[in-house]
Amino acid sequence: MKKQKALPALLLIAGVLTASASFAQHKGKSKAAEPAAPAAAASATSPYMQVQEWKKGDRLPTEFRDRQYVIDDWKQYSLPAPRKGTHWVGVGAQYYLVAPNGVIQQVGAGT
Fold first, then answer.
1. 51-108: which CATH number, 3.30.1050.10, 3.40.50.1100, 3.40.630.30, 3.10.450.160?
2. What are the structural domain ranges in the chain?
3. DSSP string, 76-105
4. Which of 65, 64, 61 has its CA nearest to residue 100?
5. Integer distance in angstroms from the first to the last C-alpha of the chain?
6. b/e code 9-27 from CB counts within 10 Å (16+ = b)
7. How many H-runs (helices) and E-runs (strands) does the chain carry?
């Protein structure tokens, strides 16, 4: 019976000690005092935030050949009909007519 009562008391003490230790570490420090990294600097170092533009004959990187980038309704973007075996891919503000092997056949700005 004593063991059953001791466990909740032990957990309570451990929780209080952990909370007070955490509070003591951050005492006196406010989030406003910590310098924040500029957003421009953070995005400049991230490869996912940089949109590269390619030209005819370049090979579109594999990550942009995923289905999410394919433009099925090319008329909506004022793009010409894709030639047989090709499809339009949208990356950033550019549209690329891409062959199955990833080679860019045409670059279109669309609307």
1. 3.10.450.160
2. 51-108
3. GGTPPPPPTT-EEEEETTEEEEE-TTSBEE
4. 65
5. 76
6. eeeeeeeeeeeeeeeeeee
7. 2, 4
What tokens does 111 get?
């609307």
pLDDT digits (tens, 9 = 90+) for 22-56: 445 545 554 444 444 444 444 445 555 566 789 99
What pLDDT, in 10s, does the model give residues 52-100? 789 999 999 988 888 899 999 999 999 999 999 999 999 888 999 999 9
Q: Is the pTM of this model over 0.85?
A: no
Task: For tokens 């420090």, name the residue.
Answer: 29
